[in-house]
Amino acid sequence: MMEINLPQIAFFALSALALISAIMVITRRNAIHSAIWLIITLFSVAGVFLMLHAEFLFAVQIILYVGGIMVLFLFVIMLVNLDVAAKQSQFSRQWFVAVVTALVLTAELVYGIYLDHRGFLIIPPPPAAAATNNTQAIAVGLYQTYMLPVEIASLLLLVAMVGAVVMAKRKFE
Amino acid sequence: MIPVHWYLYLGAGLFTIGVIGVLTRRNVIVILMSIELILNAVNINLVAFSQYFHSTNGQVFAIFVITDAAAEAAVGLGLIIALFRNKETVNADEIDLLKW
Amino acid sequence: MLDSALQFLADHSLVLATVKILVVFSVLSGVLAYIVYLERKVLAFMQARLGPMRVGPWGILQAIADPLKLILKEDIIPSGADKTLFLIAPVISVAAAFTVFAAIPFGDKDIVIHGVNLGLPLISNTNIGILFILAVSSLGIYGIILGGWASNSHYPLLGALRSAAQLVSYEVAGGMAIIGILLISHSMSLVDIVEKQQSMGVWNVFLQPVGFFIYLVAAIAETNRSPFDLPEAESELTAGFHTEYSGFRFSLFFMAEYTSMVLVSCIAVTLFWGGWLRPFQGVASLDFLKFTPVVVFLAAAVAISLGARKNQVPMEKLVLFAIAACCVLLAAALAYPLVTSAIQGIFWFSAKVFIFLYAFIWYRGTFPRYRYDQLMNLGWRVMIPLGLANVIATAAVCYWLQPHPAAAVLGMLTR
């Protein structure tokens, strides 16, 4: 980098934060600490979305993921009392094989991206249509082009809600 | 300007960490959290390409991924609660009733 | 010297934003201290007693004495508590509550000092204003959950889980109420919502009364205020999630609660009650209403003087008359035509927020507390269906008021 470039600094800061907190998620002994580090990871991913000019997705990520899903995780971790589990070994017996396999996968991914990285430097031209608001563009996509997946997703959420309630209920004999 | 493949590297990194978490940890809740990491890596890829091709299709797909992650987390955590009530453990390798 | 400083501010937007943040933060902190005092006084008068009267004339300095006492108290961390989380939890609550003020517009006229234009009196005007507010205010839940968990004791944990469940439930209802506003305003930016109310000539509360009612109930539940304050009331669960907190950390939780009270009042005023708009802004014959700030401060001066006559202590009498004199001077300063037109937006916004805060205190003194199952019942089985019905009805009316069905869809998408 020749000069101080704010987008690049922001990108490196956000990705460093995301990767470090992700590593902390999978290595903490206490499940609550893992959840907190996951919240930080989700925040940095939201920051990455904001850098990509996806402001609606930034807000949705914080509202749904951080404000909804992680609260659910924290509730369950607190209800399932894990004092005993915190003293046992945290990693399974096959951890070495697992890490080697995952690193092989990473090597393939990185190699695949590296092979074509010059192609990604050619930026396609912006479309001729006037730039609409990001939220309006997503609204057009969701409610006109992809209306059927929206309906299916709502059905999926209904099924998930009913399933979660049924499974977590105490059976009254 | 950030070239799009830098975002792909970030996505690949997060994906790897998520996969290592799923394969290595014993605690079922941490395994679920690693799955959330994997889904976020996928979202980064989708949104990066959506910005590269100047279309909002990627962001719409990312919204569906977030919705599915919510549904899956809810059902998964309900399962964990039901499991914990019966076996008093959240370690994945202690749930071995069907083992011969 | 002042001109070059102002010009520097106007040229560098990042420094200007920081200065605006500092101004809003300090004004908010001052307002916060005196809302606690106001609540004690108003509740006292509603309960036929006098409230704080010792510290300073009419107990005015109580707002300074209480924080001082809390800061100087011993900092107790319970044994077995998770130290990091215990320290972080109140900080998260306060940070989430204060951060939302970045999206709220306080007035409409550009701030022009010495001919240098410093922009609108707001910190930022994002086009996802409402989403930002919903997102950041839902982060306050973490302060409560982590505070309850880190205290390593059952009462705080139960109180925290109950409170978090209550907050999450009423967030859904509040979101439904806001959707009705979005359908009318066609934009998520708060400045656009107020300007739409100005162009329509009518405030949103008259178009969405059910939505306003739902939002009000959701707001009271969100901030853990009476009648929904079961998780933190002193007679229930021994003060709930902040049982183990003492001294400055407790005052942080306290500050977070009152800040979110001010915050939801500001949001309700902006969304439903016309933000910075004067009542009957379009009607030219009622233009004399722009002198309301002058009248309000003169009335305050008269009221303080009348009350000061009955005071026995000569020192306190002197201070009270001095305050009344300051009010008169302020009223005189506001009577200048230049200042009057500049101060209109901020004055009407503050007046409406003040009325809302008074209403919050009024509800605390009037309504009995809801039991927890009654509270959850209300949230899920009354407020959410009502909210959904409101959204459907509003959408139907908006659709049929469009000129032509095909153009209606396009009209809803492109303002």
Q: What key phrases describe this protein's structure?
A:
heterotrimer; A: Four Helix Bundle (Hemerythrin (Met), subunit A); 7 helices; globular; B: mainly alpha; Helix Hairpins; about 75% helix
Characterization of this structure:
The complex is a heterotrimer of chains A (173), B (100) and C (415). Chain A folds into 2 domains: 1-88, NADH-ubiquinone/plastoquinone oxidoreductase chain 6, subunit NuoJ (Four Helix Bundle (Hemerythrin (Met), subunit A)); 133-173. Chain A is built from 7 helices and no strands. Chain A has helices spanning 6-27, 31-51, 55-79, 83-87, 95-115, 134-145, 147-168. In chain A, helix 1 (6-27) packs antiparallel against helix 2 (31-51), helix 2 packs antiparallel against helix 3 (55-79) and helix 6 packs across helix 7. Chain A is globular, with a radius of gyration of 21 Å. The termini of chain A are far apart. The model of chain A has no long low-confidence stretch (mean pLDDT 87). By secondary structure, chain B is mainly alpha-helical. Helix content of chain B is 77%, strand content 0%. Chain C has 415 residues and is mostly helical. Chain C has a domain at 69-277 and 374-413. Chain C contains 16 helices and 2 strands. Chain C has a two-stranded antiparallel ribbon with strand order 1-2. In chain C, strand 1 and strand 2 form a beta hairpin. In chain C, helix 12 (292-308) runs antiparallel to helix 13 (314-334). Chain C is globular and about 60 Å long. The mean pLDDT of chain C is 86. Chains in contact: A-B, A-C.
